[in-house]
Every structure is written in C-alpha cells, then in structure tokens.
C-alpha cells in the first residue's frame, strides 16, 4: 500500500509539473505587445496577431490584459498598418492618424480623435512608445 501511495504521489507531481511547463510555454508563445501613450489622457495600443497578419487595437486608458476587447471600448485598424500619434491642444484629445480609418469600433472613445493622414506622417510612430508584453 505504501508503494502505491509513493507511485501515486510521483505521478501527481509529474502531472502538475508538466501542466505548469505547458502553461508557461503557452503564455510566452501567445504574448502580445502593448504600447502606452499618456498626455492629458492615456491610450493603449495592443498589437494583436491572427495567423500571419498583425493588426492594432486602440484602447482608451491603460489596459493590462490582452483580452481587453471583452471589457473595454476599442477601435481596430486593418492588418499591417502603422498609426501616428499627435496631440490636439485645442480640444484636449489625442489624435491618431493613419492612411485609413479604423475598420471596427466597439463602444465610445471620447478622448481619441481618428483622422486620415498622409503615409509619410511626421507624428509620433506607435513603435517609438514605451511598451511591455501582455501574457494574460
């Protein structure tokens, strides 16, 4: 009976170890970059991937989860685009320029103004912002 309990404990520890390793492996494979910009208000730009395409979602405020699209309002740009950020001091909004407008909106983004701008824009490119990886 003692041998059976030792074998059972060993396999239980092995299974827990394998589940932990697989979970950590999954979290590092599925990480996404989140770029942050704050002036009078803050925005978060999360770089999502679907297959080989990379697309951007712009959120109002600071977001700490890659699954924020369930809870927060956002605007989604088409795959493989770049966005540029400017400040509009007249109406205290953050201006986001791209050569296209977002293709999908969810909710109301009060402090963000979306505009169409030239491809060679002189605004702040989103990749120049500070970022960190979102795992969860």
Task: Report on this structure.
The model has no long low-confidence stretch (mean pLDDT 86). By secondary structure, the protein is of the alpha+beta class. The chain contains 1 helix and 10 strands. It folds into 2 domains: 1-30; 31-134, no CATH class. The chain starts with a helix and ends with a strand. A hairpin with a 2-residue loop joins strand 2 (42-50) and strand 3 (53-60).
Supply database-style keywords.
six-stranded antiparallel beta sheet; elongated; membrane; 136 residues; 39% strand; transmembrane helix; 10 strands; transmembrane; single chain; alpha+beta; four-stranded mixed beta sheet
Summarize the structure.
It contains one helix and ten strands; from the N terminus they run αββββββββββ. It has one helix at 2-29, and strands at residues 32-38, 42-50, 53-60, 74-76, 84-88, 93-98, 104-106, 112-116, 124-125, 130-134.
